[in-house]
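User: NlpC/P60 family protein, Paenibacillus cremeus:
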Amino acid sequence: MIALQKLQMSIILFQKDFFENKRKIFKNKILILKGGIRYLALADVLEILEYDLKGRNAKFLFATDGSEFLSLPRTGGIARREGVNFRIDPIINHQGKFYVSLRSINRLFNVDLSVDMVKRQVFIRQPGLIFITFRGDTIRSLTNLLNTTAKRLLAVNKNLIEPIPAGTRILIPTVQPNSPTLENRNKTVKIKQTEKAPNIISLGRNLIGTPYRFGAGPYPRSRRFDCSSYLQYIFGKNGIALPRTARAQSRRGSRIGQRDIEPGDLIFFRRPRYSDNRVGHCGVDIGNGHMLNTYQSPPGVTITRWKDPYWLNRYITAREVL
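Assistant: Predicted structure for NlpC/P60 family protein:
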């Protein structure tokens, strides 16, 4: 039997997000050493990175932060992110608690980790700049995991060739902000010719001020929204079923150009806390370049001008679902 060692650590999170950089300290957390691999309690990782555990079955634990769904294997080493399978170290169960390895945390949650064993500190940096490879990773699988293209991946990893050795530190080819452009500033607002758009917007306005929580549980039980659960709720109450995560929502309906966005359309953006090019934020257009959305508390659910340079340079796409 492989010996197991438990150490009490402080975890220090450096997090870049909308409009601010955060530093948080989480004390008295357990790090496990087993077979030369370091592990943290999965529950602590989910709490620190603001993921909500959505359920489980015999094979997987399911978690989301609102951007993407993760399926974490209870046994074995194959995880899944929004339909993309990839390897991690098997999660271990110690005294009824699940523990996940630091190098798997890197792959699962788009963060960089380092450890100071002398000071008993674990450092987590979000977003991560590095992706650590496992056996079986290929250029194609890496492009799927990092939401990029082979050309962009190889442009920043010029010596990357297959077969890719396990433990290779891949630079993540983060897409840089767009050049902001404003279109049709004086465009007349015309709500879509459907009964649903005005009702969706009206319900959304009635919820202004509802607090924000990353990876929020179901409303109204949680009394909180994140960006995608907010859209899921206000559309769902009007008979339009949307999936839970921003990434999945960005695939619904029909893609439309920025100049064609009308009230009731969904708009999607990158978020600073991610470097892997995922869809990180979403809102619903209400006209005149404004959207209903939520991204921090205060203000919680709010109206934001998305035709502002800050949001335009993070704009990804828009979808018509009505």
